[in-house]
Amino acid sequence: MKHWLDGGGHDLDGLVVEDLTVRFGGVLAVDGLSLASPLGMITGLIGPNGAGKSTTFGACSGFVRPAKGRIRCGGLDVTHLPPSQRAHAGIGRTFQRIELFDSLSVIENVALGLEARLAGSSPLTAVLSRRGQGSAVAAAAREALTRCGLSGIAQERAGVLSTGQRRLVEFARALAGGFRMLLLDEPSSGLDGNEVGHFGDLLRDVVRSDGLGVLIVEHDMSLIAEICDHVYVLDYGRLIFSGTPGEALTSDVVRAAYLGTSPVELSATPAPVGR
Amino acid sequence: MRNFLPFIVVGVTAGSVYGLAGLGLVLTYRTSGVFNFAHGALATAGSYVFYDLWTRYHIPWPLAAAICVLGLGGLFGVGLERLSRRLAGAPAVVTVVATIGLLLGIEGTVAVHYGAETQLVKGFLPTSTFRLPGVNVGWDQAIVVLAGVAASAGLALMLARTRIGTAMRGVVDDPSLLEITGFDATAVRRAAWILGGGVAVLSGILIAPTIGLNPLLLSYLVVQAFAAAAVGRFRSLPATFGGGLLIGVVAALGQKFTSNFPVLLGLPASLPFLVLAVVLLGSRQATLPRAGMVRRPRLDRLTPLPAVPTAVLGALGLVVVLAIPSVMGARLPVYTSAAAYVIVFLSLGFLVKTAGQVSLCHAALVAVGAVAFSRLAAAGVPWPVALLCAGLVTVPVGALVSLPAIRLSGVYLALATFAFGLLMENLVYRTFLMFGSEGHRLAPRPDLPGLALSSDRGYYFLAVAIAGAVAVAIGLLQRSRLGRLLAALADSPTALVSFGASATTLLVLVFCCSAFFAGVAGGVLAAGNHAAGPAGLGSLQSLLWIAVLAISGNRLTSSAIVAAVLLAVVPSYLPEGWQNFQPVAFGVVAVVAALLAAKETDWVAAVKADLSRSPRRHSRSPGRARVTDPWRSPVASRQEAAP
């Protein structure tokens, strides 16, 4: 299968996954997956439930150990780095199951997006901030809050917010981190239609102005069609399609994967799409 | 070989009781998600009541045993099920505090009612012997082993073959799914708790003739159960029973071998703690069964109090603190040690409340500080330097305790630190390294010309000043970058790590900071008493401290003061004989506090449950399929695949 970046020449900049294979015991969760998510673009990773999307994300951010393959970010091989080191390599992420610091305020949450990286693994930097870091962190947090329209709730405790707000806080935290690549794991799940629309606009705006790369796992096909420059479709851990969202929507292979059957039998079986 | 056989017989006898106790623990832990630190306390209550019924009321022993195992065990089971139902979904530290509260309550009640000293009791089983090749075996020993084996085999069979057994395994996987099939998950759990309670009581009755009736010793049967359960990786029943046997036999053989080496005398008795520590440290958390606990925000970080009342309150407090020496007279040393305990609780609170960690060995850290201080002071080091160095000497010990924290969390961390505290108490306290064979070391007060700091009055002010300085230091730490990172670590280690901070660094740091202040507290405490001794620094104290801290509120400084007053000051005002009720009271209040803590934040759990119940989460992705776990069917483990 031809990758859209083949011959593009700028594939070193973003996130590049080569021949990724992940096993859980005897189960092959991801099987020889290769994909590229360049800077300045939004790349979608879709597929039916259990296709291996979250596992791929886990492997990219260091929570899942791959059996084979290579993951690079900005030309740096991060395959064997622990999660904290991947943040230093420029990968930030959000979580399918929201992971906020619930007892801290919104602005503290967002500030930690950058401060956690500045703290790093040295005991010295974990206790003390260098000169100027404090104001840099505060500025980054304020800017991220403003962009996400969260300034009004900056002092609220993250634990008491609605799901929609929590998703946005998570995104703002990743934004404040100043990462080169953002991995967004189902950012629209739990949002209503209106919120999804706003989020799509925000994301496109961020990518256009900051030039960072986004790899997004999403079930909302209309959001994918609206914001993604390119999509990869997984099924049973294998890449079955790579192309534009428009092509994906009309692809027979993708339809078959989502419906679990050939189009001919469609009328006989109820469609489990978007369960 | 012939010489060892009698020891093996003794070991197998004790070991089958340990194994049995371990089985009850594993059964209730897996079905309810609540790890019962009071498992041994049930054995305590059961064996005391049994001997009361048998010797005092002359009820035939089989009937008395049946009353205890079925009646008392069942009663405990029903109560524990109600307790664990209310704790469901609470953070591990809350469940640990609740069952520790229960342990303190039961152990304390028994100690008050029957006395804390050991009563030797006659065995109720026939003591005549029969001959096996090479060794004489008592019928009582044979019966105990048979009872243990039969009860264990019965449990295993029940889980494997019966409907209720299947349901118990099902409730581990998915309670709501189980209810769809027509079972009442609560009733199933209750059955498991009743079985667990009965098994605990039975193990107490069986072991009592060997170790005598002693509330603390019997309650610590839970440690043998912990170790046996750890050998079974907290899931396998046969391996748990085997682990119990192994611990019994090795400890008995160890007794024979170490009888020639006085230094190692404490070793056989410490074997369960060693086994527990080694298994836990050797395990990755992912390989241990996870109880269905959700992480929830802690209760601190509430809206701060308005500035003016805080200032008024602070000024009032200062006046009280300054007035105490003039008002209290002979009771002043009580308040001096309260000041030292404020430092203890600040250091413990920093660990528990700020960083969300658990330490059940804090008394050992304080003891190390006390010893280091008195040794340094005895060597002629100036007083303030000796105090500071006492803190510094304790830091490496804190770093050692942080090792389990790096690999484990929640209840397993609590267990590992508890094991460490027990090891320190049993193996190290009496050696030359610490309190020595005399049991205490002299600790001087500072001697500054013109300041009379060595008088009770002068030292009181010094201790208060040091406590105040520590409170300020910890307050600054909380507001520093480290404080924010630790709060974040408590809420979501996953997120913090994926943003580039190192959880390992933070854990080592927080344990080292906490240990430093614990060491300082040890020095202040020792100098206050003119001597450093193990009294008040045993492993049970660590449990008591956690319970007291849990009931003292959520703000670090104020809770430390409240806890210190509750622990050190209140007992001195109780009428003669009432002091014994203090652990009972702490225990009861700790259970209540845990229940309140579990209740207060339930709504956040509900929100999270709502989120995780969104259908997308139940993906087909195989995730960490734990097919090796007989409690979980592969289908169910696949459902929790999402990382």
Helical percent range of chain B?
A: over 70%
Order of helices and strands of chain B: HHHHEEHHHHHHHHHHHHHEHHHHEHHHHH
Largest sheet of chain B: 2 strands, antiparallel
Radius of gyration of chain B: 25 Å
Count of DSSP H/I helices of chain A: 10
Mean pLDDT of chain B: 83
Topology as H/E string of chain A? EEEHEEHEHHHHEHEHEEHH
- Gyration radius of chain A, to the nearest Å? 19 Å
Class derived from helix and strand content of chain A: alpha/beta
| Beta fraction of chain B | under 5%
What is the spatial order of strands in the main beta sheet of chain A? 6-7-8-3-9-10
The rounded distance between the terminal residues' Cα atoms of chain B is: 53 Å
Oligomer: heterodimer
Q: How does the overall form of chain B come out from the CA principal axes? A: globular
Question: Could you characterize what this model shows?
Answer:
The complex is a heterodimer of chains A (275) and B (643). Chain A is an alpha/beta fold and 275 residues long. Helix content of chain A is 37%, strand content 21%. In chain A, a hairpin with a 2-residue loop joins strand 4 and strand 5. In chain A, helix 3 packs across helix 5, helix 3 packs parallel to helix 6 and helix 5 packs across helix 6. The longest helix of chain A has 18 residues. Chain A is globular and about 55 Å long. By secondary structure, chain B is an all-alpha fold. Classes of the chains: A alpha/beta (275), B mainly alpha (643). At the A-B interface, helix 1, helix 2, helix 3 and helix 4 of A face helix 19, helix 20, helix 21 and helix 25 of B.
